[in-house]
Amino acid sequence: MEELDKALGISLVGPEADRALADFRRQIESWGLVMPPAEPLVLDFGLGRFEQVGLIECWIANEVEAGYCGKYLFVFDGQTCPSHRHRRKHETFYIVKGRVRMMYDGSRREMMPGDVLPVERWKEHSFTGIGPALLLECSMPCMIDDNYFDDPAIPIGGNYKGRNQT
Predict the structure, then answer these.
(1) Do 46 and 153 form a contact (C-beta atoms < 8 A)?
(2) Could you tell me the CA-to-CA distances from 25 to 17, 40, 92, 109, 165 in Å, in that order?
(3) CA-CA distance, 108 to 135, in Å (whole number)?
(4) Which site from 29, 33, 154, 166 is most exposed, i.e. has the minimal number of CB atoms within 10 Å?
(5) Using 50, 70 and 90 to split pLDDT, how confident is the model at 156?
(6) pLDDT in tens, 54-75
C-alpha cells in the first residue's frame, strides 16, 4: 500500500481533520452505510481551505499489480474535488448517496444516486457536493503522481513543480 502511505502523508491532520471525520462518520451512519476499515484520508489538496476544496477518501483496494482500485469519495455540501486529469488512469464514478455537480471534459452535469460516469484518460474532471455526497470510484490503480491538477498551488501530483519529477 505504498500509494496509500503517500496519500496519508499529504492528509490533513489535527482538530480540523478530527471535526471533518466526526461529521463524515455521522453522515455515513445516518445513511446506514459502513465504510472499509482503512484510515480515511482527509484531503485539502494543500490549499488550507478544506471546507471549499477537499474530500474524504476511504480506500477499499489499490491493487497495483492486479490493475485495479476501488475507493469511496465523500464531499460535504459545496465542497469541491478540484479540477484534474490522469495520464494513465481510467476511472468510473458511481453516485451512491447525495448529488454532485460534475464537470467533465468541458461539460457540466448534475449526478444523482445510481448515475454512472466513465472518465477517460486525460479528460479534465471535478465535482462539487450538492448537499453531502458519496461516490464510488472504480478505476485503474491510484498513483499519486498521476494526478495533474489545474491549480498550480496544489503541491502534489505529476505537474507539481516543487520537486524533481521521475
Answers:
(1) yes
(2) 12, 10, 24, 27, 37
(3) 17
(4) 166
(5) confident
(6) 999 999 999 999 999 999 999 9
pTM: 0.94
Domain boundaries, the chain: 2-148
d(CA 117, CA 48): 29
For residue 63, the one-letter residue type is E
Q: What is d(CA 102, CA 164) in angstroms, rounded to the nearest whole number?
A: 32
pLDDT at residue number 162: 59
Residues present in the chain in total: 166
User: Are the C-beta atoms of residues 122 and 96 closer than 8 Å to each other?
Assistant: no
- At residue 5, the pLDDT reads 79
CATH number 2.60.120.10 given to 2-148: yes
CA-based nearest residue to 85, from 103, 68, 101, 110: 103
Alpha helices, H only, the chain? 2-9, 15-30
